[in-house]
Amino acid sequence: MGVPSAPWCRPAAEVARELGVDPAIGLDSQHATQRLRRDGPNRLRRVKPRSLAAILWAQLSSLLVGLLAVAAGIGFVSGDTVEAYAILVVIVLNTAIGFASELRAVRSMEALRRLGVTSSRVRRDGALQELPAAAVVVGDIVLLEGGDLVPADLRVLESARLQVDESSLTGESLPVTKRADPVLPETPLADRTCMLHRGTSISAGTALGVVTATGMATELGMISHLLAKAEPQATPLEKRLDRLGQRLAGLAVVIAAAIAATGFSDEHDLTLMVMTGIALAVAALPEGLPVVATLSLARGMRRMARRNALINRLAAVETLGATTVICTDKTGTLTENRLAVTHLVLPGAGPVESPADTVPTSLEGARERLLRAGQLCNNAALVGDGNKGIGDPLEVALLQAARGLPPAQAERLREEPFDPVRRLMATVHTARKGYYIAVKGAPEAVLAHCVAVADGDPSPLPLTAARLQQWLAANEALAARGLRVLALAQGFGDQLPTDMYADLTLLGLIGLMDPPRADVAAAIAQCRAAGIRVVMVTGDHLATARYVAQALKLAEGLDGSAAALPGDALDHPQDHGGEDAVLGAGVFARVSPAQKMALITRLQARGEVVAMTGDGVNDAPALRQADIGVAMGQRGTQVARQAAAMVLRDDAFASIAAAVAQGRVIFDNIRRFAVYLLSCNLSEVLVVGLAALAGGPLPLLPLQILFLNLVTDVFPALALGAGEADGSEMRRPPRPPGEAILTRRHWWQVVGHGASITVATLLAFWLAIGPLRATAEQAVSVSFLTLALAQLWHVFNMRPAGSSRWRNPVTRNPYVWAALVLCLGLLGLAVYLPPLAGVLQLVPPDTQQWAVILAASLMPVLPGLLGKR
User: What is the dihedral of CA 136, 138, 143, 149, to 10 degrees?
Assistant: First the structure.
């Protein structure tokens, strides 16, 4: 059977018949298997992970491997086969390190795809089965109830008080009532009341539906397909690493050519100098930098996963660390995403406001009538001990507020579902004498249908114009404090009413609050101390948003000034103090998806690095546009998760603040090991380059350079990349958005450290061939070991500025000590293991030579230890 066209405009039975399914029995397993094979799994298209071959090719196609391959080729041609094979070993080791780190990152990111796997209750072979949502096929009969996610696009066959949250797809914030009745063919998506769509959720009621589209054929899949065409921009870290790598690659080629050119003189062997030039070019390329950066980012990603933040792209962690503005949603991120009844306004001599849990004794009867109406005019249900419920959060809150009342004896006879136009809902129940009507809705709408106020007397008081103004003022007072306000009324009749909203009696007002998360205020204060501006961007009312912002101390001046603005201020900034005043606001309320995009774009145009949170399909373009998009894991759609660089499993703002701190730690580590690697590599280039240009013997041989570059550079750098926070990360402003990985100050550090290591090494070499009268092989061994040990001790120069000389992030890092032990062991093998010593052309130093080596190697570390830095 094919997929029916426009199923929303045809009778439900006809759609099921065309799909070849009996709703009472469902598909049989054989047909279901055939359709699954035909249409594929019911999932949205995912970006294919990089294959093993692609990861391997990326390592082999680098400039570094190319230079080493040329050197190996020259070795084979010139007859230095031992040296050529040794270079091939270096290629294998370097490729293996890069491949392993990249593969580990890919595997870590694959774990994200297991987030949000759902199951569905499906009728097959006449029995109810629970299947993975990916196994649902066209024609399946799916049963849904309050709290379920809709697994595919479905045509409603049967429904009972069915309400659906379609905000993730259409942006409609209120639940939508669904029925089986067909609608007109030209009905827009948001008004197809007989269709359920993938990515939405059941707020209340039950439904029986037949699947009409799965996977990418769903409405959600079509949006996802459009998004897939837009590739995300490279993050600031990726751009900076690329620029640094390109500059150093050019420098490496110049060095190789300059050193090799000296081979044309009579004093040096041409092959040796060409090989040395290539080795120095390899040394000038900090090949450990991308490896260590990737591993450092992957480590940060694992840390963030433990803090409920899952990273889609490795460099996103660092980008969040560079963030200057965080645009965050309110509901569920800054607040707990649960409504609670906090205030009641009850009829007395006039409207009497009271906290919900401390109502005066004289008003207990009024309180019970008010909460009873909210309990009856309700389609939600409490589960377990009553702390959780299924259905509309507002209705769950009403049930929780009424838990102390005796059980209701009234039987429901009829319901007038909530109408977003009238903003009212009514239910009819049996009563001792006739019928009881319970009504709830927006205060203005309910008051418009009331003729009296229940004040506790046998006869209610007429709702005069003066009393009406009192109640409207009470409503505005609650709303101004950020509460969501609901009015409830009642009616009685001897027979079933034809108009359930006629001649109502007002019972009172209920104020509900979505309480702020307990940890948000501290997280916002932490961001403020870190120089990061937090902006609330919400679809809620301005008064509610302002109240929550005040409670969280989100921004200053939220007392009615321009610090809190409606979303249309972004469309007409001239009406709100101009562009600067608008973009400086701390709260934007009633914001549309287009306005979110405009806000992000205009902040970025001012040089800000913007993080943006979102959860719905409508948020996906903004998540793509932001420097880092942060999707909600609990209430976020799959499309939002795909568009975002980071997913919060707990939807908590505090997790974003923790990610900011982690991002700064990672960038500090990257900067630290970049300075370390480049200063070590510069010392290798200067030691050989200066000796060659001076016409003297070479202090290092090509394979020795490669050994140093692979061993003494990489392992300490890896250890520096694993450094932990020192507590200062969130007490300083963000880096300027355009700042390079290495600033002028850092380049001077590279030059200074590289020069000091060079002087120490050349001094040891001169002492060996001069006063110590060492042989050429012994002198080279002395310079090799001096340079290697000086580079190892140099790691202690990488402590943060202003930190203690003896207790700092470097000395407290256990990986640093492990790297030093490992490298010292490898150096011992290089000198005292005959096969390896023979390949590297090293000989064991005597006592005097070891004294020179140790003394000279400690020279470069002394300025770092003694200086203030």
Answer: 60
Q: Which residue has the tokens 């009024």?
A: 366
Q: Beta strands 610-614 and 628-632: pairing type?
A: parallel
561, containing H or E segment: none
The tokens for 800 are 């943060």
Q: Which of 402, 381, 405 is nearest to 392 (CA)?
A: 381
Q: Which CATH architecture has domain 310-336+517-651?
A: 3-Layer(aba) Sandwich (3.40)
pLDDT tops 50 at residue 634? yes
Over the stretch 332-391, which tens digit does the pLDDT of each residue have?
788 877 788 999 999 987 899 988 888 888 888 899 999 999 999 987 778 777 777 766
Statement: residue 849 has pLDDT above 80: yes
The CATH class of the 248-306+661-728+740-866 domain is mainly alpha
Rounded to a whole number of angstroms, the CA Rg of the chain reads 35
Quick one: which of 387, 492, 368 has its CA closest to 429? 492
The Cα–Cα gap between 374 and 512 comes to 13
Q: What is the pTM of this model?
A: 0.64
343: tokens are 């205030």
Q: Residue 328 pLDDT more than 70?
A: yes
Q: What percent of the chain has pLDDT over 90?
A: 25
Three-state SS for 635? coil
Between β-strands 195-196 and 153-165, what pairing exists: parallel, antiparallel or unpaired?
antiparallel
Active site amino acids: 329
184 has a pLDDT exceeding 80? yes
What is the residue type of 572?
A: H
Q: What is the pLDDT of residue 7?
A: 92
Q: Which two tokens stand for residue 820?
A: 């030093």
**Whole-angstrom distance between the N-terminal and C-terminal Cα of the chain?**
76
Instruction: Locate 662 and state its tokens.
Output: 């982690």
Across 441-451, average pLDDT: 92
Of 606, 639, 634, nearest in space to 620 by CA:
639
Sort residue 103 into left (φ over 0), alpha (ψ -120 to 50) or beta: alpha
d(CA 555, CA 563): 8
CB 44 within 8 A of CB 216: yes
Task: Answer whether residue 46 shows pLDDT above 80.
Answer: no
Report the SS3 class of residue 846.
coil
Task: Give the per-residue pLDDT at 866.
Answer: 62
pLDDT in tens, 222-250: 776 655 444 444 555 556 666 666 666 66
pLDDT tens digit string along 251-300?
666 766 766 666 555 455 666 666 666 656 665 666 556 666 666 776 77
**pLDDT, the chain, mean:** 80
Q: Who contacts 816 (Cβ-Cβ below 8 Å, separation ≥6)?
A: 716, 719, 720, 795, 810
In the CATH scheme, what is the code of domain 7-46+115-220?
Answer: 2.70.150.10
The CATH homologous superfamily to which domain 340-513 belongs is: Calcium-transporting ATPase, cytoplasmic domain N (3.40.1110.10)
Give the number of other Cβ atoms within 10 Å of residue 491's Cβ.
22
Q: Diameter of the chain by CA atoms?
A: 120
- Supply angle C-alpha 307, 668, 717, rounded to 5: 100
DSSP category for residue 217: G
DSSP string, 398-433: HHHHTTTSPPP-PPEEEEEEEETTTTEEEEEEE-SS
Domain boundaries, the chain: 7-46+115-220, 248-306+661-728+740-866, 310-336+517-651, 340-513
Q: Which of 564, 666, 815 is nearest to 236 (CA)?
A: 666
Q: How far apart are CA 587 and CA 792, in angstroms?
A: 51
- Alpha-carbon gap, residue 131 to 42, rounded angstroms: 12
**Cβ burial, residue 179 (10 Å; 0-12/13-18/19+):** middle
pLDDT, average across residues 40-45: 82
Contacts of 748 (CB under 8 A, 6+ apart): none
